[in-house]
Amino acid sequence: MTTIAEYVDPFIHKVQAAGKQLEDFSNLVASREQDILRGVKRLTQALDKCVGIDASSEASPIKKLLQESLSHYRLILREWSTLIVERIEGKEFMNQFEKSIILAVFGSVNAGKSTLGNFIAGVPFRDGVDDREVPYSSEAPQFYVYDWSDGQRDRGERPLPANRFRENEVQETSTIQYFTLDNGLTWVDTPGIHSLDAEYEDLAKKYVNYADLILFVSSSSSPAKADEIAEMERLTQKEKQLLVAITKSDRTESDVVNGVEVKTRVPKSSFDRRQQEEYMDKLIHGRGIDRNLRDPRFVSLSSYLALEALRTNDVDKFEASGYPLLYEQLGGVLSKHAIELKTERPRLEMNTLIRELREGFVSKGTRVDGLVQMGEKFKSVQDELLRTGEQLRLLHTELFRELRMNIEARIESELTALSFRFDQGESITSHQINNLIEQHALRELNQLIARRVGDRLSDFQHKQIQSMPLQINAEFKGSYQEHEFTQYATKEVSRDPRGLVENLQSLFLDKKFTELRIDEKKEIRQVRVGNNSAQLLEQVLEQMEQQLAPHVQSVIHELADQYVAEQSSMLTQLQDAIESFEAELHTMRFQEEVPV
Questions:
Q1: What would the mean pLDDT of 251-264 be, rounded to a whole number?
Q2: What angle separates helix 533-588 from helix 371-423, to the nearest 10 degrees?
Q3: Neighbour-count burial for 410-422, b at 16+ CB within 10 Å, e otherwise
Q4: What structural domains does the chain harbor?
């Protein structure tokens, strides 16, 4: 490397990339939270539109069932809204510990944790900057402290006045400090071992539980002390990834220059560093702590040399400080897999909410239905409504059969009366017959519909049918039989004289003689013997059946459609709203498996 920035830049870029990914994920979660709330609101509005349904004691069972279902699920949606608001405002899908990669630093008092944190935050890079290249191009992060010393009981956090960790001081016994670098890495500086105030126990546990990496620092002056190893064992039980750094890994050399003693800070020798690292490694492996080591290499650090390297722009000295290896190890934590692990709980939390909305949940000891149960309930109501409508439609066969049976005798009686009038010479038209049948059929059909449909629908209100499209083509005709008879006719005809006297008279007196002759003629005559009333009845009933059957079917189907149309439309809209919301929720689910 030719510049210090070349060691630092890759780390900064990874921090910034992680920050961008986590910020994008946080915005995505927030957007989905709001989308779910809007979806619940839309579904509530769909339910609220289902108004005007009669649920009185006189209402039909299907209307009562529909109204009860609507009222029930309006209450459920209110519970849904409450649940979601609680999740968003109270539980937080993505809390403050999940919006960045968290690195928790542990170690003994005065082990150099604060100096190390300031260096990672870029404080020395910004102090006394001249024209040399500075890798930390973004603004300095804000430093915060939880400090309950001196009677402080403010459970919040407050900015550190100098916007940096205090160095070279014995730390307060109850102080947790942190900064977040470029929204990607939160560096948490904890109190020294055994110095954690009981007031901070819950907060410290949260940071440890959410930590993506534990950095344990031990001073080179006395590395791997018994209490440090014991603390590392306790942290190992949390199954967190662990890095180990040996700080203050430098020494002072004295030399005489021009008769004056000159002291110079130099890194500890490679031999000394290797011995301390091997000693640390032996103890860690002996206690089983090594199973959680992210990197088996222990970093020997000298913050003093690193600061000197910055002041003098000495790349070799910066390499000797050990910070290049630390930057490399820290950058390794900021991987895609780490970010996926970081977002695992929020993703599972969001998926849990979506599953509860779909399948139901328990609230205050009571089971609350989800979209699936809601959809099934309204589908069952709609199925029942459709069955009722279908039963109404099937009534037409029964109604027509009963209609014909009830009016056939009456029509026969009426036609008999008309037949008598016809026999008396009165002209009876087809139009009269048509009106007669329509009158009887219309009155009987209205009565049958009111009775039969009313038996099934207690709230049925029948509007009287005013007309019927009948075109009966029938008329009375006389009945005749043929009779054969003989017709006789007499006339006077000339004849020849008979006997002597008549011959003499004819000869001498020119007398003419005549006689009567009877002529016989066979004739056939049609004689009226009655009328066609019997055949007319069959003809009328046949035409009535052909025309009335489809009309009765049409009337009943129209009544059924009118009855179920409004409720069916409401239920269809509700089903569409439920299915739409369910499909929308499905697209909001996160993939639960985290790739390895």
A1: 77
A2: 170
A3: ebeebbeebbeeb
A4: 95-342 (3.40.50.300), 478-531 (no CATH)
